[in-house]
Amino acid sequence: MANITNHLKRFARRPDTRLGAVELAPVVQGALSLFGDRLREEAVELVVELPEDGEPLRVRAEEVRLEQVLVNLLSNALDAVAGAPQRRVAIAAEAADDTVRIMVRDSGPGIPDAVAGQVFDPFFTTKPVGAGLGLGLSISYNIVRDFGGALSVAESGPGGTAFLLTLTRA
Prior knowledge:
Layout: H1 2-12, E1 20-23, H2 24-33, H3 36-41, E2 45-49, E3 58-61, H4 63-81, E4 88-96, E5 99-106, H5 136-146, E6 150-157, E7 160-168
Parallel strand pairs: 2-4
Antiparallel strand pairs: 1-3, 4-5, 5-7, 6-7
Helix pairs in contact: 2-4, 4-5
């Protein structure tokens, strides 16, 4: 309980507006730590693929806000797989030259083509009435843009959705 309380206090504090080199693995683990019970209760298979060899992967960001983005993407992925026959959420990261690509993928029903272009608009949601405000992806998009990065829907279809977060390598 103490670990969760300390984590939530850090997560809720006012973020530092200065960008710097942020080690990715601890931020991913911090975001995932908030979903341990939900993953178990909903029997969701979690796959984490982070580079383990060599130097730690670092990105140009602000730690608390990057974790907020990952929490939002993971929360949406868990919502997408709720009640699905196969419940799988994956997060993977890879370095490519001057960037780091982070993919959050789910095995949900996908985003309908008719609304795929609206998912980053404020107050747009595909969730049932009362289940979401439609602000999470819009806020995440702007946070990532503040980092000099990009957030996009990499793919979506009946087999699930993948969001791609591209950040500058630090």
